[in-house]
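haha ok so turns out i had the wrong file open the whole time. this is the CORRECT one, sorry everyone. sequence first:
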Amino acid sequence: MLSSGRVLGVVAASAVVFSVPGLTEPVTAGGLGPSVFTAPGTFPTSVYKHYYNSPTATSAQPQPVVSDPVSHKIYPFQLTDPATLPKNNTRDPHILPPKASSGQLFESAFQQVLSIASSPAFESNNCARCQAVLQVGKFLALAAPEEGPAFAVRICEHFNFNKDCATQFGIFQLGSVITQVIANADVGGLDGQAICSHFLSGLCPAPTTTPLNLTNWFAKPKPNPLPAAKKPSGKRLKVLHISDMHIDPRYANGAEANCTSGLCCRENNFNTQSPNVTVSPAPRFGAYRCDSPFSLVMSALQAIPVLAGTERTGFDFTLYTGDLVSHDAENQLSRDYVLYTEALMYDLFRKMLGTGPVYAALGNHDSYNQAQDAPHSLNGKLADQFSWNYDHVAALWEHEGWLPHSAVELARSHYSAYMVKRKDGLRVITLNTDLWYSANYFNYINMTNPDVSGMLRFLTDELQAAEDAGDSVWIAGHVLTGWDGSNPLQNPTDLFYQIVDRFSPHVIKAVFFGHTHEDQVMIYYANNATSISAETAGAVGWIGPSVTPLTNLNSGFRVYEVDSETFEILDAHTWKSDVNAFPQLDEQSAFGPTFEYEYSTRAAYGGVVEGWGPNDPLNATWWHRVTEGMEKDPSLVTTFNTFQGKSSVRTAACTGDCATAKICYIRSGSAPIAKQNCQSGFGSVQS
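then structure:
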């Protein structure tokens, strides 16, 4: 319906022709019209019957009323009104493709990956190619997360990343973890580069350490001068350090102890060179390529109080630096298997070690999925997906009477990490080192932040409180921060190193780890080890020997003698059991494994440290002077290398570049320092 107020009527034109006056020139030859035509100055109003404005006005263009002969629709003036140009067409349909199903997204993503893999646009830049593939994976993880695990398996199988992709990356293994991480990571940035470097065959170069910004990290500057050192009491505490039990309740006596791959001494593993006949039957007390059978664990726990002389007194306390659970394949693990092992082992510690609390840290195998722990910053349900484990171990530690309720609550809320202040004044702080472990996929989210989990903030605040109170601190974790730098990530351990520097030597008296199964030590220096000397040495990281023989190691444990006032370590005694002799015990039941004294740290190395009295501590300065002695006398490195494998007959010799590298590893308390200063390839004595 036309508005009479807007439409102006005009005289109807002829039904056949319009009469349009104009000026013409004479007709040219050839029967054509005139050679020139000059149009009239006014619009020919007879062309249209109705107008929305005056068609003869010269101030605006004519706006005729147009009727569609097909739809019979009269188009409104608003459609062409020059004063009211439209901003958006909200009336007409804007056709999009139909929403794809999860299966269609899966297939499309896979085809995109194949296209990226074969595209010449990337030329030889496999890093960019890898990160482009991760972008496709991120889209799928966000749009159809239920397809993530199957996608990981298919990519793995197509590119032959693993011999058994389904049991590694399926929904019942690591597939859900990988899907979460890819969905949350900056796969086009540092996160993606690190993932491609660490997990995908080195397709990207390893990222360098991100420069730290410590502005406002520390509440107070380091005291200068440092507080006066406490005077030794002359009384010595006995502290047990055990690590990496890896009890294997599925250990099968007589099974193949020399299997081709995976965890040996299991019914399902065999030697491919002799699949039908067992080459090396598993002894009941253990073997070099197997985790600890129950018999070995009990033998060690029976031996410890006797050898340490604590049968009647118990230890003052015990440190357990992680890894209770066996090295099962991912598809053989479960929450219940982890919970069972925790309940079993902590109960055994209480029963077998006597009085004295056990301060335990979680190892990378003490979780399901193995090595995985998610930061609370993921928010929602994802933030608490591992709380089942933190709640369980915290409750066990409280049940055994080892922790006060305040520390138990810290453990529940801080990834099982806690601080406990003992009656003698020492504060023990434990950490969940999965949160800097390179095998934890969740650590590849927001890698530019060295403390995504907030664990190092927790540590710093606890150390500041200890400094304010004039207390000493021991720190215990599982995955070491340095040595050869092969286990942890660079950014978090760089920050940890600065924290140790800030609070050493007046607050932090010692740091303890496990994980490698080997007997090792690290030194933390001032100013990020820019000057390495006895004067700049600040703290020591002791890496405890394992009870498990895996791989090609003897079984061992350690006891520290500690001054009860300064909490400095005065000596460290290590015992070992010769796994090579275990097969000889199978034909009788009168005797089990023999654990024997291996060495005193002070006696083994102290001869090269001049001016050190029998009651002076084995601190960072002492250890640095030991490394100076090693530089002068390579036989000391040979001694160290022997003890590193707990005197195993399978430990190879260390000479030449190996000896130089070992000294460098001892002086490397963080992954960045190790990677910057040391030759790689000599970190482990396992073969």
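Residues 335-353 form the longest helix (19 residues).
again sry for the mixup
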